[in-house]
Amino acid sequence: MPIFIPFMGCKSRCIYCNQYAISGVTSANDIIASVQAQMARWRATATRWDELAFYGGTFGQLPVALRHKLYELAMPLPIRYSTCPESITPELAAEMTQNNVSTVELGVQSLSERVLRLNGRNYSVNDVSQAFSLIPAGIKKACQLMVGMYGESQADVALTAAGLAALKPDYIRIYPTLILKNTELEAYFKDGRFAPLPASEILLRAAWLYIHGETSSSRVIRIGLPPEADDSEMIAGGWWHPACGELVRTLVIESWLRINVKPEIDFHPLLYGYKATLKERFAKLSLREAPAHGIMKPITANLRAHYSAEPAKWFSEQGNIAFAKQLGTLQ
Q1: Which end of the chain has the lower number of beta carbons within 10 A, N or C?
Q2: What is the average pLDDT across 254-279?
């Protein structure tokens, strides 16, 4: 059951952030009333929920009394919440075990000190590592990452990808950077200090994080923004696609086939899904159709090994660039 508490608990606002816009929740004056109303709406749509998730704000930096009230509202459901790395303390870790917290999602975004600083993230890479180590055993850890951030280079993405193995998150989410109205990033966009990356570059960078995420004892559970982002009138710029994850996985599989089988590339612009697009090739290679993650683990491991000596080649190889450009034209 997803519950949005936009900007609640945040000690500062990152240059790209306008959670009121992306979550669809426009007021947080009375957070308890907002949470109760959201819970009532969700309960009207289903009789059974496995978990209650607090998203949008920095749960770990909410006032203690408010956190405990939210724990009470969630009972008896296990709780998932998102928070920032610097909010994780030994005291908060103890609180997790006492209040049925099942998963903690850390808004890491990048493992480049320079990119974190440029985007107003008030923590260091060491803080991220310490936060992961403090979360108690038995509580799942998720890592939220972004691509196309202000000042980000391909080298920064490669640095982030390489650091995932040490963090060992259970889950990873990868989001493209959008320019939201009424943010500092929008001001940078208007005065020319920031230009959003083209679709092909977003796909290449997200795919590189995906390859490392799937091969770092983790599972990438989302690539791209939720569908309701398409309805937001607050988006001023940036690329995203409702099937972003499908496009990224298609790019990854196509690259793997090109390296290992070197097939003739017959791009089919009407099919988004990687299994649909490549079904005939799977059959020719005697690969049985399997769930996405069953297919992707060996493929991503192969690609990671192939590019391990020179990660920059992933971004510069013409086959990858050309196919990413084709994928980026899909509506």
Answers
A1: C
A2: 58
